Amino acid sequence: MLKVAVLVSGGGTNLQALIDSIEAGKVKNAEIVRVVSSREGVKALNRAEKAGIETVVVRKKDYADEESYCSAMLKVLSECGADLIVLAGFLSVLPASLVKEYENRIINIHPSLIPSFCGVGYYGLKVHEEALKRGVKLTGATVHFVDEGCDSGPIILQKAVSTRIDDTPETLQRRVMEEAEWKLLPEAVNLIAAGRVRVRDGKAEIS
Ligand code: GAR
Fold it and tell me: Which of 50, 55, 128, 154 has the fewest CB atoms found within 10 Å of its own CB?
């Protein structure tokens, strides 16, 4: 059984999609052992508690430096025996040494087709604002492994979503979530739990 720790910062709809897919048996051989939030009082924490998953809040600002923050995070993740870390709307940057420790065992969901509209400053609604500003006809979502860069790790899955002439950042965000994110993230976890994803020459391969 793959032990999954999910890191969140907000609404937690991607966390919910994963919880529901595991419960429905669509994601096999995986269990969420802990939900770690970078903020207190967010809806993602309620969703976890409702599903009977242990929660913990780890806020960067409570630590004197990157090193002590990293130690605290590593403790929280190793304590629950996490094999895979899922960033589901996690808006803090993980320390490089943690990323190294969990090489190819951290995945992130990003609300665009990487390498478009990604990197520093591109998160949440901002991604959709920029996509609409540029007038792209297709956007979507990407699940990728996390490396030391920002949104630069090996791409595991992508799904395209059409934009509409009357889209607002909010309507586009919702549609990208419904049509892409909430499907892709559970699918990626299922593939990893089945041992079907490996990284070769910096690229993720699915067997
Ligand atoms: C999602 O759209 C996710 O792709 C995005 O934040 C939202 C979180 O929603 N993540 C990023 O932009 C990361 N760069 P949720 O809390 O409801 O899952």
Answer: 50
